[in-house]
Design goal:
Belongs to the neutral sphingomyelinase family. This protein is α+β, with helices and mostly antiparallel strands and 501 residues long. It is built from 12 helices and 12 strands. The chain folds into 2 domains: 12-340 and 356-365, 4-Layer Sandwich (Deoxyribonuclease I, Chain A); 385-486. Helix 10 (384-428) runs antiparallel to helix 11 (433-485). It is globular and about 90 Å long. The N and C termini lie far apart (52 Å). The relative contact order is 0.10.
Protein backbone atom coordinates (compact mmCIF):
# COMPACT_ATOMS: atom_id res chain seq x y z
CA UNK A 1 0.00 0.00 0.00
CA UNK A 2 1.16 3.50 -0.79
CA UNK A 3 1.94 5.88 2.04
CA UNK A 4 -0.66 8.63 2.17
CA UNK A 5 1.23 11.19 4.23
CA UNK A 6 2.04 14.50 2.62
CA UNK A 7 5.72 14.08 3.50
CA UNK A 8 5.91 10.77 1.71
CA UNK A 9 3.94 10.76 -1.58
CA UNK A 10 2.94 7.38 -3.04
CA UNK A 11 5.34 5.31 -5.08
CA UNK A 12 2.61 2.90 -6.25
CA UNK A 13 -0.93 3.70 -7.36
CA UNK A 14 -3.67 1.18 -8.06
CA UNK A 15 -6.18 2.48 -10.62
CA UNK A 16 -9.54 1.00 -11.60
CA UNK A 17 -12.05 1.90 -14.31
CA UNK A 18 -15.50 0.36 -14.70
CA UNK A 19 -18.55 0.97 -16.86
CA UNK A 20 -21.30 0.25 -14.32
CA UNK A 21 -24.23 -0.08 -16.77
CA UNK A 22 -26.44 1.95 -14.48
CA UNK A 23 -29.16 3.17 -16.84
CA UNK A 24 -32.19 4.16 -14.80
CA UNK A 25 -35.34 2.18 -15.69
CA UNK A 26 -33.46 0.24 -18.40
CA UNK A 27 -30.67 -1.73 -16.71
CA UNK A 28 -31.79 -4.86 -14.89
CA UNK A 29 -31.08 -5.04 -11.16
CA UNK A 30 -29.37 -1.65 -11.41
CA UNK A 31 -29.38 -0.64 -7.76
CA UNK A 32 -28.53 -4.11 -6.48
CA UNK A 33 -25.60 -4.44 -8.88
CA UNK A 34 -24.12 -0.99 -8.25
CA UNK A 35 -24.45 -1.42 -4.52
CA UNK A 36 -22.49 -4.66 -4.83
CA UNK A 37 -19.86 -2.88 -6.94
CA UNK A 38 -19.29 -0.53 -4.03
CA UNK A 39 -19.07 -3.44 -1.60
CA UNK A 40 -16.56 -5.31 -3.76
CA UNK A 41 -14.32 -2.24 -3.98
CA UNK A 42 -14.51 -1.87 -0.20
CA UNK A 43 -13.58 -5.48 0.60
CA UNK A 44 -10.88 -5.90 -2.05
CA UNK A 45 -7.65 -7.39 -0.71
CA UNK A 46 -5.76 -4.63 -2.54
CA UNK A 47 -8.27 -1.81 -2.97
CA UNK A 48 -7.82 0.75 -5.73
CA UNK A 49 -6.70 4.26 -4.84
CA UNK A 50 -8.14 6.04 -7.88
CA UNK A 51 -11.42 4.88 -9.42
CA UNK A 52 -13.20 6.10 -12.54
CA UNK A 53 -16.84 5.08 -13.05
CA UNK A 54 -18.95 5.40 -16.18
CA UNK A 55 -22.71 4.96 -16.57
CA UNK A 56 -23.28 5.63 -12.88
CA UNK A 57 -26.31 7.72 -13.75
CA UNK A 58 -28.13 8.27 -10.48
CA UNK A 59 -27.18 10.04 -7.28
CA UNK A 60 -28.69 7.12 -5.37
CA UNK A 61 -26.21 4.65 -6.84
CA UNK A 62 -23.28 7.03 -6.50
CA UNK A 63 -24.07 7.69 -2.84
CA UNK A 64 -24.37 3.96 -2.20
CA UNK A 65 -20.89 3.37 -3.62
CA UNK A 66 -19.48 6.38 -1.76
CA UNK A 67 -20.97 5.27 1.54
CA UNK A 68 -19.37 1.84 1.27
CA UNK A 69 -15.95 3.02 0.09
CA UNK A 70 -15.44 6.28 1.99
CA UNK A 71 -13.08 4.67 4.51
CA UNK A 72 -10.75 3.79 1.61
CA UNK A 73 -11.66 6.50 -0.90
CA UNK A 74 -12.70 9.50 1.20
CA UNK A 75 -12.74 11.93 -1.73
CA UNK A 76 -15.11 11.73 -4.66
CA UNK A 77 -17.04 13.70 -7.24
CA UNK A 78 -20.22 12.95 -9.17
CA UNK A 79 -20.19 14.94 -12.40
CA UNK A 80 -23.25 16.69 -13.79
CA UNK A 81 -23.69 17.34 -17.50
CA UNK A 82 -26.24 17.43 -20.27
CA UNK A 83 -29.96 16.92 -19.82
CA UNK A 84 -29.80 13.61 -17.97
CA UNK A 85 -26.21 13.61 -16.70
CA UNK A 86 -23.08 12.02 -18.11
CA UNK A 87 -22.85 9.12 -15.64
CA UNK A 88 -19.23 9.90 -14.72
CA UNK A 89 -17.70 9.79 -11.24
CA UNK A 90 -14.19 9.81 -9.78
CA UNK A 91 -13.19 8.43 -6.36
CA UNK A 92 -9.81 9.04 -4.77
CA UNK A 93 -7.72 8.17 -1.74
CA UNK A 94 -6.17 11.65 -1.88
CA UNK A 95 -7.77 15.12 -1.86
CA UNK A 96 -9.30 16.50 -5.04
CA UNK A 97 -7.97 20.05 -5.38
CA UNK A 98 -9.95 21.00 -8.48
CA UNK A 99 -12.55 19.45 -10.71
CA UNK A 100 -14.32 20.36 -13.92
CA UNK A 101 -16.59 18.78 -16.49
CA UNK A 102 -15.34 19.31 -20.03
CA UNK A 103 -18.17 18.84 -22.53
CA UNK A 104 -17.20 17.49 -25.94
CA UNK A 105 -17.97 20.12 -28.63
CA UNK A 106 -19.07 17.33 -30.98
CA UNK A 107 -21.26 14.75 -29.28
CA UNK A 108 -24.08 13.19 -31.25
CA UNK A 109 -27.30 14.78 -32.43
CA UNK A 110 -30.55 15.63 -30.61
CA UNK A 111 -32.55 13.93 -33.38
CA UNK A 112 -31.06 10.58 -32.26
CA UNK A 113 -33.06 10.71 -29.03
CA UNK A 114 -33.27 6.90 -28.96
CA UNK A 115 -29.47 6.76 -28.59
CA UNK A 116 -29.12 9.44 -25.96
CA UNK A 117 -25.49 10.48 -26.45
CA UNK A 118 -26.36 14.14 -27.01
CA UNK A 119 -28.82 14.25 -24.11
CA UNK A 120 -26.39 12.91 -21.51
CA UNK A 121 -23.81 15.53 -22.47
CA UNK A 122 -20.81 13.25 -22.87
CA UNK A 123 -17.47 14.74 -21.97
CA UNK A 124 -14.46 14.39 -19.71
CA UNK A 125 -14.69 14.39 -15.91
CA UNK A 126 -11.49 16.08 -14.77
CA UNK A 127 -10.01 15.92 -11.26
CA UNK A 128 -6.73 17.34 -9.99
CA UNK A 129 -5.60 15.10 -7.13
CA UNK A 130 -2.94 16.19 -4.64
CA UNK A 131 -0.80 13.23 -3.51
CA UNK A 132 2.07 15.12 -1.87
CA UNK A 133 3.62 18.55 -1.29
CA UNK A 134 5.81 18.77 -4.39
CA UNK A 135 4.79 20.17 -7.77
CA UNK A 136 5.05 16.77 -9.38
CA UNK A 137 2.97 15.08 -6.67
CA UNK A 138 -0.23 15.77 -8.58
CA UNK A 139 -2.32 13.37 -10.63
CA UNK A 140 -4.75 14.78 -13.17
CA UNK A 141 -7.47 12.22 -13.80
CA UNK A 142 -9.62 12.28 -16.92
CA UNK A 143 -12.61 9.93 -16.88
CA UNK A 144 -14.66 9.66 -20.06
CA UNK A 145 -17.13 7.66 -22.11
CA UNK A 146 -16.76 8.26 -25.84
CA UNK A 147 -19.62 8.28 -28.33
CA UNK A 148 -20.72 4.77 -29.22
CA UNK A 149 -20.34 3.44 -32.80
CA UNK A 150 -23.77 2.44 -34.06
CA UNK A 151 -22.65 1.44 -37.55
CA UNK A 152 -19.58 -0.15 -39.06
CA UNK A 153 -16.95 2.14 -40.48
CA UNK A 154 -16.77 3.78 -42.96
CA UNK A 155 -20.58 4.11 -42.81
CA UNK A 156 -20.55 5.24 -39.18
CA UNK A 157 -21.90 8.78 -39.26
CA UNK A 158 -20.45 9.41 -35.78
CA UNK A 159 -16.85 8.63 -36.76
CA UNK A 160 -16.07 12.34 -36.99
CA UNK A 161 -17.49 12.86 -33.49
CA UNK A 162 -15.38 10.10 -31.93
CA UNK A 163 -12.29 11.38 -33.72
CA UNK A 164 -12.88 14.87 -32.33
CA UNK A 165 -13.47 13.45 -28.85
CA UNK A 166 -10.23 11.44 -28.98
CA UNK A 167 -8.47 14.62 -30.09
CA UNK A 168 -9.89 16.60 -27.15
CA UNK A 169 -9.01 14.12 -24.41
CA UNK A 170 -5.52 13.71 -25.89
CA UNK A 171 -5.04 17.48 -25.58
CA UNK A 172 -6.16 17.41 -21.95
CA UNK A 173 -3.75 14.60 -21.07
CA UNK A 174 -0.88 16.22 -22.94
CA UNK A 175 -1.32 19.52 -21.11
CA UNK A 176 -1.36 17.73 -17.76
CA UNK A 177 1.84 15.82 -18.55
CA UNK A 178 3.58 18.96 -19.78
CA UNK A 179 2.74 20.65 -16.46
CA UNK A 180 4.83 17.97 -14.79
CA UNK A 181 1.80 16.11 -13.46
CA UNK A 182 0.82 12.48 -13.78
CA UNK A 183 -1.89 12.21 -16.45
CA UNK A 184 -4.39 9.37 -16.06
CA UNK A 185 -7.03 8.85 -18.74
CA UNK A 186 -9.54 6.11 -18.10
CA UNK A 187 -12.98 4.99 -19.13
CA UNK A 188 -15.05 3.28 -21.78
CA UNK A 189 -13.54 4.63 -25.00
CA UNK A 190 -15.75 2.57 -27.32
CA UNK A 191 -12.76 1.74 -29.50
CA UNK A 192 -10.60 -1.30 -30.12
CA UNK A 193 -6.79 -1.33 -29.72
CA UNK A 194 -4.82 0.32 -32.52
CA UNK A 195 -7.99 1.72 -34.08
CA UNK A 196 -8.02 5.24 -35.47
CA UNK A 197 -9.05 6.92 -32.19
CA UNK A 198 -6.69 4.76 -30.11
CA UNK A 199 -3.63 5.63 -32.17
CA UNK A 200 -4.63 9.28 -32.29
CA UNK A 201 -4.63 9.41 -28.47
CA UNK A 202 -1.31 7.62 -27.99
CA UNK A 203 0.38 9.61 -30.75
CA UNK A 204 -0.95 13.02 -29.71
CA UNK A 205 -0.33 12.72 -25.97
CA UNK A 206 2.69 11.36 -24.04
CA UNK A 207 0.68 8.50 -22.52
CA UNK A 208 0.76 4.71 -22.63
CA UNK A 209 -2.14 2.31 -22.94
CA UNK A 210 -1.26 0.17 -19.91
CA UNK A 211 -2.55 -3.07 -21.42
CA UNK A 212 -0.83 -2.66 -24.79
CA UNK A 213 2.36 -1.67 -22.98
CA UNK A 214 2.40 -4.94 -21.01
CA UNK A 215 0.83 -7.11 -23.74
CA UNK A 216 2.07 -5.70 -27.06
CA UNK A 217 0.79 -8.72 -29.01
CA UNK A 218 -2.72 -8.60 -27.54
CA UNK A 219 -5.71 -8.69 -29.88
CA UNK A 220 -6.84 -5.74 -32.00
CA UNK A 221 -10.51 -6.59 -31.56
CA UNK A 222 -12.80 -9.59 -31.40
CA UNK A 223 -11.62 -12.76 -33.13
CA UNK A 224 -14.28 -12.37 -35.83
CA UNK A 225 -13.19 -8.81 -36.68
CA UNK A 226 -11.34 -8.04 -39.89
CA UNK A 227 -8.26 -6.89 -37.97
CA UNK A 228 -7.84 -10.19 -36.13
CA UNK A 229 -8.59 -12.29 -39.19
CA UNK A 230 -5.79 -10.56 -41.07
CA UNK A 231 -3.39 -11.26 -38.21
CA UNK A 232 -4.06 -14.97 -38.69
CA UNK A 233 -4.39 -15.67 -34.99
CA UNK A 234 -6.48 -18.62 -33.75
CA UNK A 235 -9.74 -17.92 -31.95
CA UNK A 236 -8.73 -17.38 -28.31
CA UNK A 237 -10.28 -19.14 -25.36
CA UNK A 238 -12.37 -17.24 -22.83
CA UNK A 239 -9.54 -17.43 -20.29
CA UNK A 240 -6.91 -16.25 -22.78
CA UNK A 241 -9.06 -13.28 -23.75
CA UNK A 242 -9.25 -12.23 -20.11
CA UNK A 243 -5.63 -12.74 -19.10
CA UNK A 244 -3.80 -11.78 -22.30
CA UNK A 245 -6.16 -9.68 -24.42
CA UNK A 246 -7.86 -7.70 -21.66
CA UNK A 247 -11.25 -8.37 -23.24
CA UNK A 248 -13.51 -6.83 -20.60
CA UNK A 249 -16.52 -6.70 -22.94
CA UNK A 250 -18.73 -9.16 -24.82
CA UNK A 251 -17.08 -12.34 -23.54
CA UNK A 252 -18.78 -15.54 -22.27
CA UNK A 253 -17.89 -14.84 -18.63
CA UNK A 254 -20.29 -11.90 -18.60
CA UNK A 255 -23.83 -13.12 -17.99
CA UNK A 256 -25.37 -10.07 -19.67
CA UNK A 257 -23.91 -11.27 -22.98
CA UNK A 258 -25.58 -14.67 -22.70
CA UNK A 259 -28.58 -15.67 -24.83
CA UNK A 260 -31.95 -14.80 -23.33
CA UNK A 261 -32.75 -18.45 -22.68
CA UNK A 262 -29.64 -18.84 -20.52
CA UNK A 263 -30.33 -15.59 -18.69
CA UNK A 264 -33.84 -16.79 -17.80
CA UNK A 265 -32.39 -19.97 -16.32
CA UNK A 266 -29.94 -17.86 -14.34
CA UNK A 267 -32.71 -15.59 -13.03
CA UNK A 268 -34.54 -18.68 -11.78
CA UNK A 269 -31.57 -19.51 -9.58
CA UNK A 270 -29.85 -22.12 -11.73
CA UNK A 271 -26.07 -22.13 -11.46
CA UNK A 272 -24.53 -22.08 -14.95
CA UNK A 273 -20.73 -22.50 -14.96
CA UNK A 274 -18.53 -21.09 -17.71
CA UNK A 275 -15.88 -23.21 -19.40
CA UNK A 276 -12.76 -21.05 -19.62
CA UNK A 277 -11.41 -23.19 -22.46
CA UNK A 278 -14.34 -22.53 -24.79
CA UNK A 279 -13.63 -20.38 -27.87
CA UNK A 280 -14.43 -16.71 -27.45
CA UNK A 281 -14.90 -15.06 -30.88
CA UNK A 282 -16.73 -11.97 -29.53
CA UNK A 283 -14.68 -10.75 -26.57
CA UNK A 284 -12.93 -7.42 -27.10
CA UNK A 285 -11.33 -4.55 -25.21
CA UNK A 286 -13.22 -1.25 -25.09
CA UNK A 287 -12.12 -0.02 -21.65
CA UNK A 288 -8.74 1.63 -21.15
CA UNK A 289 -6.33 3.20 -18.72
CA UNK A 290 -3.79 5.61 -20.19
CA UNK A 291 -0.96 6.96 -18.03
CA UNK A 292 1.92 9.31 -18.72
CA UNK A 293 3.96 12.17 -17.32
CA UNK A 294 6.85 14.39 -18.30
CA UNK A 295 5.68 15.69 -21.65
CA UNK A 296 7.87 15.23 -24.70
CA UNK A 297 11.66 15.09 -24.75
CA UNK A 298 14.15 16.66 -25.07
CA UNK A 299 13.00 19.74 -23.14
CA UNK A 300 10.57 17.98 -20.81
CA UNK A 301 11.71 15.50 -18.15
CA UNK A 302 11.72 11.79 -18.85
CA UNK A 303 8.69 9.88 -17.49
CA UNK A 304 8.96 8.89 -13.84
CA UNK A 305 5.98 6.54 -13.62
CA UNK A 306 6.07 3.07 -15.13
CA UNK A 307 3.36 0.45 -15.61
CA UNK A 308 3.77 -2.44 -13.19
CA UNK A 309 0.71 -4.60 -13.86
CA UNK A 310 -2.74 -4.65 -15.41
CA UNK A 311 -5.63 -7.09 -15.21
CA UNK A 312 -9.33 -7.54 -15.87
CA UNK A 313 -11.16 -7.13 -12.56
CA UNK A 314 -14.66 -7.12 -11.00
CA UNK A 315 -15.53 -10.42 -12.69
CA UNK A 316 -17.36 -11.82 -9.67
CA UNK A 317 -21.13 -12.22 -9.79
CA UNK A 318 -23.75 -10.78 -7.49
CA UNK A 319 -23.93 -13.07 -4.43
CA UNK A 320 -27.71 -13.53 -4.52
CA UNK A 321 -28.76 -12.65 -8.07
CA UNK A 322 -25.84 -14.63 -9.58
CA UNK A 323 -25.46 -12.12 -12.44
CA UNK A 324 -22.39 -10.16 -13.51
CA UNK A 325 -22.06 -6.81 -11.76
CA UNK A 326 -22.11 -4.94 -15.09
CA UNK A 327 -22.14 -5.64 -18.81
CA UNK A 328 -18.44 -4.68 -18.75
CA UNK A 329 -15.71 -5.96 -16.47
CA UNK A 330 -13.25 -3.51 -14.92
CA UNK A 331 -9.68 -2.80 -15.93
CA UNK A 332 -7.25 -2.43 -13.04
CA UNK A 333 -3.64 -1.25 -13.29
CA UNK A 334 -0.77 -0.58 -10.91
CA UNK A 335 1.80 2.08 -11.74
CA UNK A 336 4.97 2.79 -9.77
CA UNK A 337 7.94 5.10 -9.56
CA UNK A 338 11.32 5.20 -7.84
CA UNK A 339 10.78 6.61 -4.32
CA UNK A 340 13.88 8.79 -4.73
CA UNK A 341 12.77 10.26 -8.04
CA UNK A 342 11.92 13.90 -8.31
CA UNK A 343 11.90 15.78 -11.58
CA UNK A 344 14.12 13.73 -13.83
CA UNK A 345 16.65 15.22 -16.18
CA UNK A 346 15.51 15.89 -19.73
CA UNK A 347 15.75 12.87 -21.95
CA UNK A 348 17.15 12.76 -25.42
CA UNK A 349 15.03 13.22 -28.53
CA UNK A 350 12.42 10.53 -28.97
CA UNK A 351 12.00 8.64 -32.21
CA UNK A 352 8.60 7.24 -33.05
CA UNK A 353 8.42 4.43 -35.52
CA UNK A 354 5.41 3.38 -37.61
CA UNK A 355 2.65 1.61 -35.71
CA UNK A 356 0.58 -1.41 -36.68
CA UNK A 357 -2.48 -0.46 -38.66
CA UNK A 358 -5.92 -1.75 -37.81
CA UNK A 359 -7.71 -2.86 -41.00
CA UNK A 360 -11.05 -2.05 -39.37
CA UNK A 361 -10.30 1.61 -39.97
CA UNK A 362 -11.21 1.16 -43.65
CA UNK A 363 -8.52 3.39 -45.02
CA UNK A 364 -7.88 5.65 -42.04
CA UNK A 365 -4.27 5.20 -41.03
CA UNK A 366 -2.31 6.66 -38.18
CA UNK A 367 1.35 6.66 -39.02
CA UNK A 368 3.81 7.98 -36.49
CA UNK A 369 6.33 10.43 -37.83
CA UNK A 370 9.91 9.18 -37.92
CA UNK A 371 11.12 12.73 -37.38
CA UNK A 372 12.49 13.79 -34.01
CA UNK A 373 9.58 14.75 -31.78
CA UNK A 374 10.16 18.43 -30.84
CA UNK A 375 8.74 19.64 -27.57
CA UNK A 376 7.13 22.71 -29.08
CA UNK A 377 5.23 20.64 -31.61
CA UNK A 378 3.88 17.38 -30.18
CA UNK A 379 1.59 17.22 -33.21
CA UNK A 380 4.57 16.06 -35.26
CA UNK A 381 4.03 12.58 -33.83
CA UNK A 382 1.66 12.13 -36.79
CA UNK A 383 2.33 12.50 -40.50
CA UNK A 384 0.83 15.07 -42.83
CA UNK A 385 -1.07 12.26 -44.56
CA UNK A 386 -2.81 11.43 -41.29
CA UNK A 387 -3.93 15.02 -40.85
CA UNK A 388 -5.10 15.09 -44.47
CA UNK A 389 -7.31 12.06 -43.76
CA UNK A 390 -8.80 13.75 -40.68
CA UNK A 391 -9.47 16.89 -42.72
CA UNK A 392 -11.17 14.84 -45.43
CA UNK A 393 -13.33 13.23 -42.75
CA UNK A 394 -14.28 16.66 -41.38
CA UNK A 395 -15.08 18.04 -44.84
CA UNK A 396 -17.29 15.06 -45.68
CA UNK A 397 -19.21 15.36 -42.43
CA UNK A 398 -19.53 19.14 -42.76
CA UNK A 399 -21.09 18.76 -46.22
CA UNK A 400 -23.61 16.35 -44.71
CA UNK A 401 -24.49 18.75 -41.91
CA UNK A 402 -24.78 21.76 -44.22
CA UNK A 403 -27.16 19.78 -46.42
CA UNK A 404 -29.16 18.68 -43.38
CA UNK A 405 -29.38 22.27 -42.16
CA UNK A 406 -30.68 23.51 -45.52
CA UNK A 407 -33.34 20.80 -45.69
CA UNK A 408 -34.50 21.38 -42.12
CA UNK A 409 -34.74 25.14 -42.58
CA UNK A 410 -36.58 24.60 -45.86
CA UNK A 411 -39.01 22.31 -44.04
CA UNK A 412 -39.66 25.07 -41.51
CA UNK A 413 -40.43 27.62 -44.24
CA UNK A 414 -42.68 25.18 -46.12
CA UNK A 415 -44.52 24.29 -42.90
CA UNK A 416 -45.40 27.96 -42.39
CA UNK A 417 -47.05 28.16 -45.80
CA UNK A 418 -48.78 24.79 -45.35
CA UNK A 419 -50.23 25.94 -42.02
CA UNK A 420 -51.46 29.19 -43.57
CA UNK A 421 -53.05 27.17 -46.37
CA UNK A 422 -54.77 24.90 -43.86
CA UNK A 423 -56.26 27.87 -41.99
CA UNK A 424 -57.50 29.34 -45.26
CA UNK A 425 -59.08 25.96 -45.97
CA UNK A 426 -60.77 26.01 -42.56
CA UNK A 427 -62.29 29.38 -43.42
CA UNK A 428 -63.75 28.00 -46.67
CA UNK A 429 -64.94 24.69 -45.16
CA UNK A 430 -66.15 25.88 -41.76
CA UNK A 431 -69.61 24.48 -42.46
CA UNK A 432 -68.15 20.96 -42.81
CA UNK A 433 -66.99 20.27 -39.28
CA UNK A 434 -64.91 17.14 -39.81
CA UNK A 435 -62.99 18.70 -42.73
CA UNK A 436 -62.21 21.79 -40.67
CA UNK A 437 -61.06 19.59 -37.79
CA UNK A 438 -58.73 17.60 -40.07
CA UNK A 439 -57.25 20.81 -41.50
CA UNK A 440 -56.61 22.25 -38.03
CA UNK A 441 -55.00 18.97 -36.92
CA UNK A 442 -52.78 18.84 -40.01
CA UNK A 443 -51.82 22.48 -39.53
CA UNK A 444 -50.90 21.93 -35.88
CA UNK A 445 -48.82 18.80 -36.45
CA UNK A 446 -47.17 20.23 -39.55
CA UNK A 447 -46.25 23.51 -37.88
CA UNK A 448 -44.98 21.75 -34.76
CA UNK A 449 -42.69 19.52 -36.84
CA UNK A 450 -41.56 22.53 -38.86
CA UNK A 451 -40.67 24.53 -35.76
CA UNK A 452 -38.72 21.57 -34.37
CA UNK A 453 -36.77 21.17 -37.61
CA UNK A 454 -36.21 24.92 -37.74
CA UNK A 455 -34.75 24.95 -34.24
CA UNK A 456 -32.52 21.96 -34.99
CA UNK A 457 -31.34 23.38 -38.31
CA UNK A 458 -30.99 26.97 -37.17
CA UNK A 459 -29.55 26.45 -33.70
CA UNK A 460 -28.06 22.99 -33.18
CA UNK A 461 -26.60 22.44 -36.64
CA UNK A 462 -25.21 25.95 -36.83
CA UNK A 463 -23.50 25.32 -33.50
CA UNK A 464 -22.20 21.95 -34.69
CA UNK A 465 -20.79 23.45 -37.90
CA UNK A 466 -18.94 26.06 -35.85
CA UNK A 467 -17.49 23.30 -33.66
CA UNK A 468 -16.39 21.49 -36.83
CA UNK A 469 -14.67 24.66 -38.02
CA UNK A 470 -12.75 24.88 -34.75
CA UNK A 471 -11.71 21.24 -35.02
CA UNK A 472 -10.68 21.76 -38.63
CA UNK A 473 -8.53 24.76 -37.74
CA UNK A 474 -6.74 22.81 -35.00
CA UNK A 475 -6.01 19.92 -37.36
CA UNK A 476 -4.77 22.26 -40.09
CA UNK A 477 -2.58 24.07 -37.61
CA UNK A 478 -1.14 20.75 -36.40
CA UNK A 479 -0.42 19.80 -40.01
CA UNK A 480 1.36 23.12 -40.47
CA UNK A 481 3.65 22.31 -37.53
CA UNK A 482 4.45 18.91 -39.04
CA UNK A 483 5.34 20.50 -42.36
CA UNK A 484 7.47 23.15 -40.70
CA UNK A 485 9.33 20.49 -38.70
CA UNK A 486 9.93 18.54 -41.92
CA UNK A 487 11.61 21.56 -43.51
CA UNK A 488 8.80 22.88 -45.69
CA UNK A 489 8.95 26.55 -46.56
CA UNK A 490 6.67 28.92 -44.69
CA UNK A 491 4.41 29.29 -47.72
CA UNK A 492 4.19 25.53 -48.28
CA UNK A 493 3.57 24.77 -44.62
CA UNK A 494 0.75 27.31 -44.26
CA UNK A 495 -1.84 26.62 -46.94
CA UNK A 496 -4.97 28.01 -45.32
CA UNK A 497 -6.40 31.42 -44.67
CA UNK A 498 -7.83 32.05 -41.20
CA UNK A 499 -10.62 34.07 -42.80
CA UNK A 500 -12.18 30.88 -44.16
CA UNK A 501 -12.91 29.90 -40.56
Amino acid sequence: MANTSKADPPTRIRILTLNCWGLKFLSKFRHERLSEIGRQIAIAAEPPEIVGLQECWTQQDYKSIRQQTKHLLPYGKFYNSGVFGGGLAILSKWPIEESSMFAYPLNGRPTAFFRGDWYVGKGVACARIRMGPRTEDVAEVFCTHLHAPYEREPHDSYLCHRTAQAWEIAKLMRRAAERGHLAIGLGDFNMVPMSFAHRLITAHAPVKDVWSYLHPDSSLGSADSEAEKKRGKPVPSADFNITENGAASDGPYNTWRWPESQQKRLFKGEDIPVDGNQPDPKGRRLDYIFVGDGGYPPSFPAPRWTVESAKVAMMQRHPTLNVSLSDHFAIEAVISRDPDSSVAAPAGPEKRGPQILNPDDHGFTIEASTETHPTAAPSTALTTETYDEILALIDTYMLRERSQRCWRLAHFVISVFVSIGCFVGVWWTSDVIYVAFILVLVSTLNFGAGILDGLIGGLFMSSEIRALKEFKWEVKNARRLVRAAAGWTSKEATDFDEEEF
